[in-house]
Protein backbone atom coordinates (compact mmCIF):
# COMPACT_ATOMS: atom_id res chain seq x y z
CA UNK A 1 0.00 0.00 0.00
CA UNK A 2 1.37 3.39 -1.06
CA UNK A 3 2.37 5.65 1.82
CA UNK A 4 0.44 8.91 2.12
CA UNK A 5 2.35 12.06 1.21
CA UNK A 6 0.33 14.47 3.36
CA UNK A 7 0.08 16.77 0.33
CA UNK A 8 -2.97 18.72 -0.81
CA UNK A 9 -2.99 20.25 -4.29
CA UNK A 10 -5.22 23.12 -5.37
CA UNK A 11 -5.43 23.13 -9.16
CA UNK A 12 -7.02 25.41 -11.77
CA UNK A 13 -6.61 28.39 -9.48
CA UNK A 14 -5.27 31.94 -9.68
CA UNK A 15 -2.82 32.78 -6.89
CA UNK A 16 -1.82 36.18 -5.55
CA UNK A 17 1.93 36.03 -5.07
CA UNK A 18 4.42 38.90 -4.85
CA UNK A 19 2.04 41.49 -6.25
CA UNK A 20 0.89 39.42 -9.21
CA UNK A 21 -2.01 37.07 -9.83
CA UNK A 22 -0.61 33.99 -11.53
CA UNK A 23 -2.11 30.79 -12.87
CA UNK A 24 -0.43 28.13 -10.77
CA UNK A 25 -1.31 25.20 -8.56
CA UNK A 26 -0.96 25.64 -4.80
CA UNK A 27 0.56 22.75 -2.82
CA UNK A 28 0.35 22.51 0.97
CA UNK A 29 1.62 20.08 3.61
CA UNK A 30 1.84 20.22 7.39
CA UNK A 31 0.23 23.65 7.45
CA UNK A 32 2.79 25.18 5.09
CA UNK A 33 2.95 26.06 1.39
CA UNK A 34 5.43 23.81 -0.41
CA UNK A 35 7.44 24.04 -3.62
CA UNK A 36 5.94 21.68 -6.23
CA UNK A 37 9.31 21.21 -7.94
CA UNK A 38 10.73 19.76 -4.75
CA UNK A 39 7.71 17.47 -4.49
CA UNK A 40 7.96 16.28 -8.11
CA UNK A 41 11.68 15.96 -8.68
CA UNK A 42 13.24 15.38 -5.27
CA UNK A 43 10.50 13.51 -3.41
CA UNK A 44 8.59 12.15 -6.43
CA UNK A 45 5.38 12.42 -4.44
CA UNK A 46 1.78 12.86 -5.49
CA UNK A 47 -1.00 14.68 -3.67
CA UNK A 48 -3.30 12.72 -1.39
CA UNK A 49 -6.06 15.23 -2.09
CA UNK A 50 -6.62 17.40 -5.19
CA UNK A 51 -9.08 20.29 -5.12
CA UNK A 52 -10.30 21.79 -8.40
CA UNK A 53 -10.74 25.54 -7.86
CA UNK A 54 -12.39 26.19 -11.23
CA UNK A 55 -10.48 29.44 -11.86
CA UNK A 56 -11.25 30.95 -8.46
CA UNK A 57 -8.81 33.36 -6.78
CA UNK A 58 -6.61 32.38 -3.83
CA UNK A 59 -5.26 35.25 -1.74
CA UNK A 60 -3.31 35.36 1.54
CA UNK A 61 -5.56 35.45 4.60
CA UNK A 62 -6.56 38.89 5.78
CA UNK A 63 -4.93 40.32 8.91
CA UNK A 64 -6.85 42.90 10.97
CA UNK A 65 -4.60 44.95 13.26
CA UNK A 66 -7.39 46.98 14.85
CA UNK A 67 -10.76 45.53 15.83
CA UNK A 68 -12.53 46.49 19.04
CA UNK A 69 -15.01 43.63 19.04
CA UNK A 70 -18.05 42.51 17.11
CA UNK A 71 -21.27 40.54 17.26
CA UNK A 72 -22.06 42.12 20.63
CA UNK A 73 -18.63 41.40 22.14
CA UNK A 74 -16.66 44.38 23.52
CA UNK A 75 -12.99 43.56 24.16
CA UNK A 76 -12.65 46.57 26.48
CA UNK A 77 -15.54 45.95 28.87
CA UNK A 78 -16.60 42.28 28.92
CA UNK A 79 -14.63 41.18 32.00
CA UNK A 80 -16.82 38.20 32.89
CA UNK A 81 -16.38 36.12 29.71
CA UNK A 82 -13.21 37.45 28.10
CA UNK A 83 -11.98 34.25 26.47
CA UNK A 84 -15.46 33.28 25.33
CA UNK A 85 -15.91 36.71 23.74
CA UNK A 86 -12.60 36.56 21.88
CA UNK A 87 -13.48 33.08 20.61
CA UNK A 88 -16.85 34.29 19.34
CA UNK A 89 -15.34 37.14 17.34
CA UNK A 90 -12.51 34.92 16.09
CA UNK A 91 -15.05 32.40 14.81
CA UNK A 92 -17.23 35.02 13.10
CA UNK A 93 -14.23 36.61 11.38
CA UNK A 94 -13.57 33.44 9.38
CA UNK A 95 -16.60 34.21 7.18
CA UNK A 96 -14.91 37.51 6.29
CA UNK A 97 -11.58 35.98 5.23
CA UNK A 98 -9.75 37.16 8.35
CA UNK A 99 -7.22 34.51 9.40
CA UNK A 100 -5.36 36.61 12.02
CA UNK A 101 -6.29 39.60 14.15
CA UNK A 102 -5.33 41.85 17.04
CA UNK A 103 -8.14 42.26 19.59
CA UNK A 104 -8.09 45.96 20.47
CA UNK A 105 -8.80 47.63 23.81
CA UNK A 106 -9.68 51.33 23.88
CA UNK A 107 -8.96 53.69 26.78
CA UNK A 108 -10.35 52.07 29.92
CA UNK A 109 -10.09 52.29 33.68
CA UNK A 110 -6.92 50.76 35.08
CA UNK A 111 -8.70 47.80 36.69
CA UNK A 112 -10.00 46.59 33.32
CA UNK A 113 -6.49 46.02 31.98
CA UNK A 114 -5.45 43.83 34.92
CA UNK A 115 -8.53 41.63 34.41
CA UNK A 116 -8.81 41.51 30.62
CA UNK A 117 -5.22 41.58 29.32
CA UNK A 118 -4.00 38.33 30.93
CA UNK A 119 -6.96 36.49 29.40
CA UNK A 120 -6.37 37.45 25.74
CA UNK A 121 -3.48 35.20 24.87
CA UNK A 122 -1.88 34.48 21.52
CA UNK A 123 -3.77 31.57 20.01
CA UNK A 124 -3.21 29.60 16.82
CA UNK A 125 -6.26 29.68 14.59
CA UNK A 126 -8.31 26.78 13.28
CA UNK A 127 -11.95 25.79 12.97
CA UNK A 128 -12.51 27.46 16.33
CA UNK A 129 -11.55 30.85 14.86
CA UNK A 130 -8.91 33.19 13.46
CA UNK A 131 -5.41 33.35 14.96
CA UNK A 132 -5.02 35.82 17.86
CA UNK A 133 -1.71 37.61 17.23
CA UNK A 134 -1.73 39.69 20.40
CA UNK A 135 -3.60 42.64 21.89
CA UNK A 136 -3.58 46.15 20.44
CA UNK A 137 -3.83 48.71 23.26
CA UNK A 138 -5.20 52.03 22.01
CA UNK A 139 -4.94 54.50 24.88
CA UNK A 140 -5.01 55.76 27.59
CA UNK A 141 -1.73 57.51 26.68
CA UNK A 142 -3.32 59.81 24.11
CA UNK A 143 -4.09 63.49 23.61
CA UNK A 144 -7.17 64.90 25.33
CA UNK A 145 -7.63 67.25 22.39
CA UNK A 146 -7.75 64.30 19.96
CA UNK A 147 -9.48 61.74 22.14
CA UNK A 148 -12.20 61.03 19.59
CA UNK A 149 -14.50 58.41 21.13
CA UNK A 150 -12.19 57.68 24.09
CA UNK A 151 -13.28 58.47 27.66
CA UNK A 152 -11.53 61.64 28.84
CA UNK A 153 -11.51 60.67 32.53
CA UNK A 154 -9.08 57.79 31.96
CA UNK A 155 -6.61 59.57 29.64
CA UNK A 156 -3.13 60.17 31.09
CA UNK A 157 0.51 60.93 30.29
CA UNK A 158 3.26 58.27 30.33
CA UNK A 159 5.43 60.62 32.40
CA UNK A 160 7.75 57.86 33.64
CA UNK A 161 8.08 56.20 30.25
CA UNK A 162 7.81 52.42 30.26
CA UNK A 163 7.25 52.43 34.02
CA UNK A 164 4.01 54.39 33.53
CA UNK A 165 2.95 51.94 30.83
CA UNK A 166 3.49 48.96 33.14
CA UNK A 167 1.71 50.68 36.04
CA UNK A 168 -1.47 50.93 33.98
CA UNK A 169 -1.39 47.80 31.82
CA UNK A 170 0.43 45.40 34.11
CA UNK A 171 2.32 42.53 32.42
CA UNK A 172 2.81 43.13 28.69
CA UNK A 173 3.24 39.50 27.63
CA UNK A 174 0.07 39.45 25.51
CA UNK A 175 0.55 42.88 23.91
CA UNK A 176 1.64 43.30 20.27
CA UNK A 177 0.79 46.98 19.53
CA UNK A 178 0.43 50.10 21.68
CA UNK A 179 -1.08 53.28 20.25
CA UNK A 180 0.02 56.49 21.97
CA UNK A 181 0.51 60.20 21.31
CA UNK A 182 4.24 60.95 20.88
CA UNK A 183 4.04 64.58 22.06
CA UNK A 184 3.06 63.62 25.62
CA UNK A 185 5.58 63.88 28.50
CA UNK A 186 7.52 60.62 28.74
CA UNK A 187 6.16 59.25 25.45
CA UNK A 188 9.51 58.95 23.67
CA UNK A 189 11.01 56.97 26.56
CA UNK A 190 7.92 54.77 26.53
CA UNK A 191 8.35 54.16 22.80
CA UNK A 192 11.97 53.12 23.28
CA UNK A 193 11.04 50.79 26.12
CA UNK A 194 8.15 49.15 24.26
CA UNK A 195 10.22 48.73 21.10
CA UNK A 196 12.99 47.05 23.09
CA UNK A 197 10.38 44.54 24.30
CA UNK A 198 9.44 43.74 20.71
CA UNK A 199 6.09 45.58 20.93
CA UNK A 200 5.12 47.70 17.93
CA UNK A 201 4.26 51.32 18.67
CA UNK A 202 1.61 53.18 16.68
CA UNK A 203 1.15 56.95 16.77
CA UNK A 204 -2.42 58.17 17.07
CA UNK A 205 -5.08 60.20 18.87
CA UNK A 206 -2.47 62.90 18.79
CA UNK A 207 -1.81 66.61 18.28
CA UNK A 208 1.78 65.85 17.31
CA UNK A 209 3.75 67.96 14.86
CA UNK A 210 5.71 66.31 12.08
CA UNK A 211 8.88 66.83 14.13
CA UNK A 212 7.26 64.99 17.06
CA UNK A 213 6.33 62.14 14.75
CA UNK A 214 9.78 61.91 13.20
CA UNK A 215 11.39 61.79 16.65
CA UNK A 216 8.99 59.01 17.64
CA UNK A 217 9.95 57.00 14.53
CA UNK A 218 13.62 57.42 15.44
CA UNK A 219 12.76 55.98 18.87
CA UNK A 220 11.14 52.92 17.29
CA UNK A 221 7.53 53.70 16.31
CA UNK A 222 6.58 52.27 12.91
CA UNK A 223 2.80 52.68 12.65
CA UNK A 224 0.14 55.40 12.51
CA UNK A 225 -3.29 54.53 13.87
CA UNK A 226 -6.25 55.26 11.52
CA UNK A 227 -4.61 57.97 9.43
CA UNK A 228 -6.49 61.30 9.21
CA UNK A 229 -8.78 60.38 12.11
CA UNK A 230 -8.07 61.88 15.58
CA UNK A 231 -4.94 63.82 14.56
CA UNK A 232 -4.03 67.30 13.35
CA UNK A 233 -5.29 67.95 9.83
CA UNK A 234 -2.66 68.36 7.12
CA UNK A 235 -1.20 71.88 7.00
CA UNK A 236 1.42 73.03 4.51
CA UNK A 237 3.68 74.53 7.19
CA UNK A 238 3.36 71.60 9.58
CA UNK A 239 1.71 68.52 8.11
CA UNK A 240 1.59 66.72 11.48
CA UNK A 241 1.57 62.93 11.59
CA UNK A 242 0.15 62.83 8.06
CA UNK A 243 3.50 64.24 6.93
CA UNK A 244 5.23 61.01 7.96
CA UNK A 245 3.94 59.48 4.72
CA UNK A 246 6.37 61.70 2.78
CA UNK A 247 9.03 62.09 5.48
CA UNK A 248 12.67 61.09 5.02
CA UNK A 249 12.66 58.60 7.89
CA UNK A 250 15.09 55.69 7.61
CA UNK A 251 12.39 53.01 7.75
CA UNK A 252 8.97 52.38 6.29
CA UNK A 253 6.17 53.90 8.32
CA UNK A 254 2.92 51.95 8.04
CA UNK A 255 -0.45 53.57 8.51
CA UNK A 256 -3.93 52.22 9.10
CA UNK A 257 -6.80 53.31 6.87
CA UNK A 258 -10.47 52.74 7.73
CA UNK A 259 -11.95 52.35 4.26
CA UNK A 260 -15.57 51.85 5.26
CA UNK A 261 -16.91 54.66 3.10
CA UNK A 262 -17.59 56.73 6.23
CA UNK A 263 -14.39 57.51 8.14
CA UNK A 264 -12.18 58.67 5.27
CA UNK A 265 -13.12 60.52 2.08
CA UNK A 266 -12.14 58.63 -1.09
CA UNK A 267 -9.93 61.54 -2.19
CA UNK A 268 -8.01 61.40 1.11
CA UNK A 269 -7.55 57.65 0.68
CA UNK A 270 -6.23 58.19 -2.87
CA UNK A 271 -3.77 60.86 -1.69
CA UNK A 272 -2.35 58.58 1.00
CA UNK A 273 -2.17 55.64 -1.38
CA UNK A 274 -0.27 57.61 -4.02
CA UNK A 275 2.16 59.23 -1.57
CA UNK A 276 3.12 56.06 0.31
CA UNK A 277 1.67 52.95 -1.29
CA UNK A 278 3.88 50.47 0.56
CA UNK A 279 2.77 51.63 4.00
CA UNK A 280 -1.00 51.47 3.60
CA UNK A 281 -2.66 48.94 5.90
CA UNK A 282 -6.40 48.38 5.74
CA UNK A 283 -8.00 48.01 9.18
CA UNK A 284 -11.63 47.56 10.10
CA UNK A 285 -11.54 49.42 13.45
CA UNK A 286 -14.80 47.54 13.93
CA UNK A 287 -16.87 48.12 17.07
CA UNK A 288 -18.98 45.62 19.04
CA UNK A 289 -21.94 46.53 16.81
CA UNK A 290 -20.29 44.79 13.83
CA UNK A 291 -22.64 42.06 12.66
CA UNK A 292 -25.64 43.51 14.51
CA UNK A 293 -28.62 45.60 13.42
CA UNK A 294 -28.80 49.35 14.08
CA UNK A 295 -29.46 50.27 17.70
CA UNK A 296 -27.62 50.66 21.00
CA UNK A 297 -24.15 49.27 21.68
CA UNK A 298 -20.89 50.14 23.47
CA UNK A 299 -17.21 50.76 22.93
CA UNK A 300 -15.39 50.39 26.22
CA UNK A 301 -17.11 52.59 28.83
CA UNK A 302 -18.90 54.66 26.18
CA UNK A 303 -22.51 54.15 25.06
CA UNK A 304 -22.87 53.89 21.28
CA UNK A 305 -25.75 54.48 18.91
CA UNK A 306 -25.71 52.90 15.44
CA UNK A 307 -27.78 54.54 12.72
CA UNK A 308 -27.69 53.30 9.11
CA UNK A 309 -24.45 51.48 9.81
CA UNK A 310 -22.73 54.54 11.32
CA UNK A 311 -21.56 54.12 14.91
CA UNK A 312 -21.62 57.28 17.03
CA UNK A 313 -21.01 58.03 20.70
CA UNK A 314 -24.60 58.14 21.98
CA UNK A 315 -26.15 61.59 21.78
CA UNK A 316 -23.39 62.96 19.53
CA UNK A 317 -22.15 62.80 15.94
CA UNK A 318 -18.68 61.60 17.04
CA UNK A 319 -17.76 58.50 15.05
CA UNK A 320 -16.39 55.71 17.24
CA UNK A 321 -15.31 52.98 14.81
CA UNK A 322 -16.81 51.11 11.92
CA UNK A 323 -19.44 48.43 11.50
CA UNK A 324 -17.66 46.94 8.47
CA UNK A 325 -15.49 43.83 8.49
CA UNK A 326 -12.20 43.79 6.59
CA UNK A 327 -13.54 42.06 3.46
CA UNK A 328 -16.03 44.90 2.96
CA UNK A 329 -13.29 47.49 3.54
CA UNK A 330 -11.21 45.88 0.77
CA UNK A 331 -14.05 46.20 -1.73
CA UNK A 332 -14.74 49.83 -0.77
CA UNK A 333 -11.03 50.64 -0.86
CA UNK A 334 -10.70 49.30 -4.39
CA UNK A 335 -13.75 51.29 -5.47
CA UNK A 336 -12.42 54.48 -3.84
CA UNK A 337 -8.91 54.29 -5.30
CA UNK A 338 -9.45 52.34 -8.54
CA UNK A 339 -6.28 50.49 -7.57
CA UNK A 340 -5.35 47.05 -8.83
CA UNK A 341 -7.01 44.02 -7.29
CA UNK A 342 -3.57 42.77 -6.27
CA UNK A 343 -2.80 45.95 -4.34
CA UNK A 344 -6.15 46.04 -2.54
CA UNK A 345 -5.73 42.45 -1.35
CA UNK A 346 -2.13 42.94 -0.23
CA UNK A 347 -3.15 46.05 1.76
CA UNK A 348 -5.14 43.69 3.99
CA UNK A 349 -2.63 40.83 4.07
CA UNK A 350 1.01 41.49 3.16
CA UNK A 351 1.13 45.07 4.44
CA UNK A 352 -0.17 44.34 7.96
CA UNK A 353 2.17 41.34 8.12
CA UNK A 354 5.09 43.60 7.23
CA UNK A 355 3.99 46.17 9.82
CA UNK A 356 4.19 43.47 12.50
CA UNK A 357 7.39 41.97 11.09
CA UNK A 358 5.77 38.56 10.47
CA UNK A 359 5.79 38.59 6.66
CA UNK A 360 8.28 35.72 6.66
CA UNK A 361 5.38 33.43 7.55
CA UNK A 362 2.10 35.35 7.06
CA UNK A 363 0.63 37.67 4.44
CA UNK A 364 2.22 35.78 1.54
CA UNK A 365 1.65 32.60 -0.45
CA UNK A 366 5.39 31.95 -0.83
CA UNK A 367 6.94 28.56 -0.21
CA UNK A 368 7.34 27.71 3.50
CA UNK A 369 4.83 30.38 4.54
CA UNK A 370 1.84 29.44 6.69
CA UNK A 371 -0.99 28.08 4.55
CA UNK A 372 -3.43 30.78 5.68
CA UNK A 373 -5.48 31.82 2.67
CA UNK A 374 -8.89 32.74 1.32
CA UNK A 375 -10.62 31.46 -1.80
CA UNK A 376 -12.58 34.28 -3.44
CA UNK A 377 -14.96 34.84 -6.29
CA UNK A 378 -12.64 36.92 -8.52
CA UNK A 379 -15.50 39.16 -9.73
CA UNK A 380 -17.34 39.96 -6.51
CA UNK A 381 -14.49 39.26 -4.01
CA UNK A 382 -17.00 37.34 -1.92
CA UNK A 383 -15.34 34.93 0.51
CA UNK A 384 -16.10 31.35 -0.58
CA UNK A 385 -13.83 29.56 1.90
CA UNK A 386 -11.17 30.36 4.48
CA UNK A 387 -8.16 28.18 5.30
CA UNK A 388 -5.77 28.28 8.26
CA UNK A 389 -2.62 26.13 8.35
CA UNK A 390 -3.96 24.23 5.35
CA UNK A 391 -7.27 23.35 6.99
CA UNK A 392 -10.62 24.56 5.66
CA UNK A 393 -12.12 26.48 8.57
CA UNK A 394 -15.05 28.15 6.80
CA UNK A 395 -17.15 27.44 3.73
CA UNK A 396 -19.77 29.90 2.51
CA UNK A 397 -23.31 28.54 2.33
CA UNK A 398 -24.46 27.87 -1.22
Automatic annotation (TrEMBL):
Gene Ontology biological process: N-acetylglucosamine catabolic process; N-acetylneuraminate catabolic process; negative regulation of UDP-N-acetylglucosamine biosynthetic process
Q: What is its EC number?
A: 3.5.1.25
Amidohydrolase-related domain boundaries? 58-391
Q: Under which main EC class is this enzyme filed?
A: hydrolase
User: For binding substrate, which residues are annotated in this chain's numbering?
Assistant: 149, 229-230, 237, 263, 319-321
Q: Could you give the cofactor binding note from the entry? A: Binds 1 divalent metal cation per subunit.
Q: Which UniProt keywords apply?
A: Carbohydrate metabolism, Hydrolase, Metal-binding
- Protein's name according to its UniProt entry: N-acetylglucosamine-6-phosphate deacetylase
Q: Which organism is the protein's source? A: Parnassius mnemosyne (clouded apollo)
Tell me the organism's taxonomic lineage. Answer: Eukaryota, Metazoa, Ecdysozoa, Arthropoda, Hexapoda
Amino acid sequence: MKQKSGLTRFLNCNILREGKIIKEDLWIRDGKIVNPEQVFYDEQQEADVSINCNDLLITPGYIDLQINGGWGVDFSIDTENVEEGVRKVAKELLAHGVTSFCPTMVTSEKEKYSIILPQIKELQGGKHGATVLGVHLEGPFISLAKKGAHSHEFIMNPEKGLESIREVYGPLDNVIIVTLAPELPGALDAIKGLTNLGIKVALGHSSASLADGEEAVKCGANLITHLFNAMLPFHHRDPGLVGLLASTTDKQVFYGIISDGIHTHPAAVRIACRINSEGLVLVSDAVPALGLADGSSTIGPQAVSVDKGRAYIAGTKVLCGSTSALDECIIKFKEATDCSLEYALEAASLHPAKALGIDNCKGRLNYQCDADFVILDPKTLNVLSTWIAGECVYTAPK
